[in-house]
Structure formats: C-alpha cells, structure tokens
Amino acid sequence: MTLYAVNPLVLKAQVDVALGGLIQSSDVRLGELTLVTPVANYLQVVTALRDHPACKFEQLIDLCGVDYSTYKDQPLVGSRFCVVLHLLSVSLNQRVRLKVFLPDDVAPVLPSVCDVWSAANWFEREAFDLFGIVFEGHDDLRRILTDYGFIGHPFRKDFPLSGHVEMRYDAEQKRVVYQPVTIEPREITPRVIREENYGALHKAV
C-alpha cells in the first residue's frame, strides 16, 4: 500500500490542535508548513511534535542557525538570531519546519534538544561554531568545523570576509603559528559588456 504525503493544510489543522497555544504562528507556503514558537515553549513543542499521535516527527533532518541582521537589505526588525529545525515523520509521511527566534542578540541561548533527537548533537555544535548560539544542556558543546582556537563565528553577517587571523607553518619554529590577517581588503569591479556595443571594436568598416 502506498502512503501518500499529508496535505499541508490538513497537517496544519492537526498540528494546530496538537500544540494548542504553544506556538506563535503556523503558516503554509509553497506547500510546506512552518511553525514559530517562543523560546519558553520550545522544549514542550518539540516533545509534542515527536510524541503526539497526529505528529510523530521521529526524525530530525536538520537544525541550523540564521542571522537576520541584514535580511533583504532592510533594517532589522525583531530578533537577530533564529534556530530552524526540519522534522520528518516516517510513519505518517509528513514534514514540518520549526523556527524559534532568540531574544538576546548579544548572547543567543536556546535549550538543547539532544534528549529529544540524538541527531541534534552535531547540528547544535555547528550552530554554536558558526553563529555563536549556545545550547544549554548540550553534553559536548565545542567547535566542530573551525579550529578550537578560532576567533569569532564566521556565519554571522558582521564577520569579516578575510577573518581576524591567518595561520601558516613557521619553518624556524617548526609549527603552525597564528598571526593577524595580512590580506588588504579591496573591491573588485567587474568589467561590464553592454549588448549594444558588443564586438563593435572588431567589426570591419
């Protein structure tokens, strides 16, 4: 028997009933259901999404951070940092996206969901490494993609493209050393070829 995917509008109605007043919003766009929950309800919401008979999202597909500080090149309105989860129900063949905005732009903190989905372990470490989001209750919250001595969080919009430090091998010291970045920032303006003049210089008179 083929198990067809649940209509997102039907899923929205089921999830709205299952979660009640725990979520701020639920919205269907482009055939996908997106939920937004406040930090205070986060653990209660993820547990319900996993355990409620109408949800059964047994699998965490992805967890990532988002920096909205320059979103659409417009002034920031609301919280800067957000954590986004993508969940899959294998048994019910349905998916949902959960977003939680973090109220503290300086030191964003969110409870860990490793006890709900063990797959969150490395995802939360990645969000900590790249965005500086701290996940309370995580057993091993340390960098996972950058070096342990790395300065800053490279996916933040205010992180310089050249970084803060560079590393090289020092032959005299016979080890890798860190030093301030020596690359001078510059802006490269690409050559523009306009269609009306294309090839004009090479045409025979």
Describe the protein's architecture and organization.
With 205 residues, this protein is α/β, with parallel strands linked by helices. It has a single domain (8-151), classed as NADH:ubiquinone oxidoreductase Nqo5 subunit (Beta Polymerase, domain 2, 2-Layer Sandwich), CATH 3.30.460.80. Helices cover 17% and strands 27% of the residues. The chain is built from 3 helices and 9 strands. The chain has helices at 8-19, 42-51, 120-131; strands spanning 25-29, 32-36, 59-67, 81-89, 94-102, 109-111, 134-136, 165-170, 175-180. The strands form 3 sheets. The chain has a 5-stranded mixed β-sheet with strand order 1-2-5-4-3. The longest helix is centred in the first third of the chain and has 12 residues, at 8-19. It is globular and about 65 Å long. The N and C termini lie far apart (73 Å). The mean pLDDT is 90.
Structure at a glance:
By secondary structure, the protein is an alpha/beta fold. The protein is built from 3 helices and 9 strands.
Largest sheet data? 5 strands, mixed
Structural category is: alpha/beta
Assigned CATH superfamily: NADH:ubiquinone oxidoreductase Nqo5 subunit
List segments where confidence is low: pLDDT < 50 over at least 5 consecutive residues.
none
Mean pLDDT: 90
Question: If helices are DSSP runs of H or I spanning 4 or more residues, what is the number of helices?
Answer: 3
Oligomer: single chain
Estimate percent helicity. 10-25%
DSSP strand tally: 9
Molecular shape = globular
Predict the CATH topology: Beta Polymerase, domain 2
Strand content: 25-35%
Terminal CA distance reads 73 Å
Rg, rounded, reads 23 Å
What sequence of helices (H) and strands (E) makes up the elements?
HEEHEEEEHEEE
- In CATH, what is the class? Alpha Beta
Domain count, please report it.
1
Strand order across the largest sheet: 1-2-5-4-3
CATH architecture: 2-Layer Sandwich
